[in-house]
Specification:
It is a multi-pass membrane protein. By secondary structure, this protein is an all-alpha fold. It contains 14 helices and two strands; from the N terminus they run ααααββαααααααααα. The longest helix has about 50 residues.
Length: about 375
């Protein structure tokens, strides 16, 4: 009897210890979420205050609360840029987390799978062949592309074509996750070559407009673009979050997930399609912004692990923070010259990609 009581006490002690450890882990993860929100808010404030025209906090608050001489700058230039960076970063972060799970490959992201290059080809086709996206240049400023929805729709179509091709290769030929990454590299090369082919027969001004579009610039975002990016993000995020337990089940393998009642094939197709959709919307409006979807999920995994209850929302938060910081750097590093944010993210993402390649040892 004493032995039985001792075993019961030991079992209760273990249960209590595990419960405390679990609650401590949850509190730590919740604290990380609050910290990320605070950092995003802090970067947003600094970004709104940063620009060629020096504005203090008092000036910004006055411009937001009532019409002043600075209202247009604050509301329609700086604030739209801040919101656009947060939305695009969150979209790419959550898309990267889902793609890496459903493809079972840590190197998967919208950029490495060729989605961005497909969008670039679509934009080039609209600008050069369809004559959409009128261009202009003021003085020494770079060539810009007017908000032209034929360009946006063509870029979106090019990105979705890339995903459809990858899905067809994946399910018709049962290609491995490593093979899908190689297929993405091949599609990137294909669409890159097709874009250069179009540029070869284009005028100098059309080539300049196409190249400028591919740089990736948060400054292209207006309130209309931000609303559309928000709608795409919130719809996809809600679906991904409701599937969080199914994504966790897939970590144990397809067979285990199927035994738990998960429709693995549907979840993989829907996850890939919606991830590509939300990134395509951002890419169509802002141009190519690489590696945010690759970096964000890996940083979050290092901090909290693979639990998709937290990985999905925190990848979105860290993506928003990372792109917001990158945009701030692009505006200040060579001020008053504003660099395209795609250049900054590529500089940051390339070392991470090589690190993952080395850690994985083979692909």
């Amino acid at each position: 009897m004493e032995r039985l009581n001792s075993k019961i006490q030991d079992s209760q002690f273990i249960d209590t210890t595990l419960r405390k450890q679990y609650l401590s882990s949850i509190r730590t993860k919740l604290f990380l979420g609050v910290l990320l929100l605070f950092l995003i808010f802090l970067v947003a404030i600094v970004s709104v205050l940063t620009g060629s025209m020096n504005l203090g906090i008092h000036d910004v608050l006055k411009a937001l609360l009532r019409d002043t001489e600075n209202s247009y700058i604050v509301r329609n230039i700086r604030l739209t840029r801040v919101v656009g960076a947060a939305l695009a970063g969150a979209s790419m972060g959550v898309a990267g987390a889902v793609m890496q799970n459903v493809l079972k490959n840590p190197l998967a992201s919208p950029f490495t799978l060729g989605v961005s290059h497909g969008a670039a080809f679509g934009a080039a086709f609209a600008i050069i062949v369809l004559g959409a996206g009128q261009t202009h240049s003021f003085g020494t400023e770079a060539v810009t592309v007017f908000k032209s929805y034929p360009v946006v729709l063509s870029a979106f179509s090019g990105a979705l074509i890339t995903v459809i091709l990858i899905l067809l290769l994946s399910f018709l030929r049962n290609i491995s996750p490593e093979g899908i990454i190689l297929a993405g590299v091949a599609l990137s090369s294909l669409f890159g070559s097709a874009t250069m082919f179009l540029q070869y027969f284009a005028s100098d001004f059309q080539v300049a407009a196409t190249v400028f579009w591919t740089f990736g610039d948060i400054g292209k975002a207006g309130w209309t673009e931000n609303r559309l990016m928000f709608i795409a993000f919130i719809l996809c995020f809600i679906y991904f979050f409701f599937q969080r337990w199914n994504f966790n089940a897939m970590l144990w393998g397809d067979e285990v997930a199927k035994s738990l009642g998960v429709n693995v094939k549907f979840l993989r197709v829907s996850g890939m399609f919606l991830s590509a959709f939300v990134v395509s919307v951002c890419t169509a409006f802002l141009g190519i912004i690489g590696f945010i979807g690759l970096i964000s999920p890996h940083v979050i995994r290092l901090l909290i692990g693979n639990d998709h209850r937290f990985l999905i929302p925190y990848s979105a938060l860290f993506g928003a923070f990372l792109l917001s910081v990158s945009d701030l750097v692009s505006r200040t590093i060579l001020a008053p010259v504003v660099l395209p944010v795609g250049i900054i993210t590529s500089f940051a993402g390339a070392p991470m990609f090589f690190y993952l390649l080395i850690r994985r040892r083979k692909i």
